[in-house]
Amino acid sequence: MFMEDIIEHKRDGLALTEEEIHFFIQNYVNNKIPDYQASALLMAIYLKGMTSYETAILTKEMRDSGEVWDLSDIPGLKVDKHSTGGVGDKVSLVLGPMVASCGAKLAKMSGRGLGHTGGTLDKLESIPCFDIYETYEEFKEQVKNVGMAIIGQDENLDPADKKIYALRDVTATVSSIPLIASSIMSKKLASGSDCILLDVKYGSGAFMKTKEDAKKLGDLMEQIGEHLNKDVRYEITSMEEPLGYAVGNNLEIKEVIETLNNRGPKDLTLLCLNSGAIMLEQAKIFDNYQDGYNALLKNLENGKAFDKFVEFVKAQKGDISYIYDPSKFKVSKYLIPIFAAKNGIIKKIDALTIGKASMHLGGGRMVLTDTIDMSAGIVLNKKVGDSVKNNELLCTLHTDKDDVKEVIEEVKEAFIY
């Protein structure tokens, strides 16, 4: 079998065979196929697409390119949740304790933020001493005993995705739906969960800009689950405005604490209740959505969800005194208020602009080697649909940077009346 024949087949719009996909993944991971040939195949996939079966085989081969964690000795069905990313998306940190407090086992590997999207690991590391690195055995033990663990991806899992993702980033093939789906699903399947819930976001602050494209991606990932005998479900949610009020690492942790104490933003709370009810049904903790929803709401109200978050943070060596007293978190040197320019109703808060502004304030990174200011970001005071009066507070910028005049102007333009 020759790589040029595989490239030619996909270039001509043919479906690749299981043998061809296996040949490509195995030899590329082992450095027997050069980047220029892999790039040619990725571009052919971008232009010609893949069937759901092809994408499932690609996902399986990527999953099997490294270690695959076996969590079967942990009692019950293990659940995982993945978001395609957005601005102010701290759902996993609220949702995990909620479902774990109801008896589910959440086994999650997460990533860091890049560009305008925040990373779950960065948010967790804004808690002093929090450890995102655990061995396979430590991870399993924590999921079994605490009910949840969220760690960084093990280097031995899915090496094919690491190589292919890096190549996609520099060959203009990032936005291929089959390549997005196989990247997400291969990592999720390698980490060993039985059930996966996908939050596919669309809008200005999301990777998928339209609801239609979000549905295509969700359908494909669900089909991959069917081909590989996994319970994979998805929901489509809007990222036209930031989720909740806080954007930025320790700012979002403070909002997580508020939400787990049943004082959180309505949009974040409702999303977590909805997602959690689906996950509890997947885990067979409850027979139907409504029973799961009611149990989650009860544990928000009685404090069990918050207690589970404390237990989780403590298990990963985080300083729980910050969870009990969020005023201990570092506060930025400058708190810059942004006021409304006129009376009106807020029609839009552009999530992409807010996400980029938070990054420029120090709350995100342009490249993975950038250092994050954990206290930097933006806290909104208004949401879409709210009425506003001239000179009323719209949001507050948090930063240690001395000159952010351009960011201030960008944030003002993000609010459409």
Tags for this model:
single chain; 417 residues; alpha/beta; five-stranded parallel sheet; four-stranded antiparallel sheet; 17 helices; 13 strands
Summed up:
This protein has 417 residues and is α/β, with parallel strands linked by helices.
How would you describe the overall organization of this protein?
This protein is an alpha/beta fold. Helices cover 47% and strands 14% of the residues. The chain has a 5-stranded parallel β-sheet, sandwiched between helices. Strands 6-10-12-7 form a 4-stranded antiparallel β-sheet, with helices on both faces. Strand 4, helix 10 and strand 5 form a beta-alpha-beta unit. Helix 16 packs antiparallel against helix 17 (405-414). The longest helix is centred in the middle third of the chain and has 17 residues, at 211-227. The protein is globular, with a radius of gyration of 22 Å. The model has no long low-confidence stretch (mean pLDDT 94).
* E-strand count: 13
Please give the alpha-carbon distance between the first and last residues: 60 Å
Tally of DSSP helical segments: 17
Overall average pLDDT = 94
Order of H and E elements: HHHHEHEHHEHHEHEEHHHHHEEEHEEEHE
Structural class: alpha/beta
Report the helical percentage: 40-55%
Strand order of the largest sheet: 3-2-1-4-5
